[in-house]
Write a structure and sequence with these properties.
183 residues; two-stranded antiparallel sheet; 6 helices; 7 strands; globular; 48% helix; 5-stranded parallel β-sheet; alpha/beta; 17% strand
Length: 183
């Protein structure tokens, strides 16, 4: 069985923990980029990967980029991303991951209200779309919001403890959707 983790630098951070947890059951791969959801290059690169390899589960965590795009553009980009995945990998089980919180750089005890409010709104939009399409949602936001000790000094990325917490939850969520024969 194969699993693909799609996302950005947050995925790069917890990928090792997920791979280590699942390595005896599945082959893990990742596609990590800083491109925004609706960027044509992002969709083309992802399509190439999905057309070349079959994946049983695709876990997507890509919401911290594209601050210069409106929430309407985010919504359209997200729908386009899902359409691309469903077209290129119709047999794969998709799991959406809510975007992680944003704290103030060098003052990680404090939430970056402006950016985090946008994260909350984008998570609301994503949750609504996922509900409509019956796609399960992994709520990493909830396990991180009350843990400033998990953050690195930049307020966006995570230290080893934070990456381990994320990796544990992501691996458990993916395991739920693996083929029954390997669960």
């Amino acid at each position: 069985a194969r699993v693909l983790l799609v996302g950005d630098s947050i995925v790069k951070g917890y990928y090792g923990a997920v791979e280590k947890t699942l390595c005896e059951k599945v082959s893990c791969a990742r596609y990590a980029t800083s491109l925004f959801l609706s960027n044509p290059d992002y969709l083309a690169e992802l399509s190439l990967l999905l057309n070349r390899y079959d994946f049983d589960v695709i876990h997507i965590n890509n919401g911290l980029h594209g601050w210069d795009y409106s929430e309407e553009e985010y919504k359209a980009g997200l729908k386009g991303l899902l359409d691309t995945i469903q077209k290129c990998a119709p047999e794969a089980k998709i799991v959406w991951c809510l975007t992680t919180p944003v704290r103030i750089a060098k003052e990680v005890a404090k939430i970056d209200e402006e950016k985090n409010d946008r994260v909350i709104e984008r998570n609301r939009i994503a949750a609504e779309i996922m509900r409509e399409q019956e796609i399960p949602v992994n709520d990493l936001y909830a396990i991180l919001i009350d843990h400033p000790e998990y953050f690195s000094e930049d307020g966006v990325h995570y230290n080893g403890k934070g990456q381990a917490a994320q990796g544990e939850q992501v691996a458990a969520m993916i395991a739920r959707y693996l083929p029954k024969s390997i669960q």
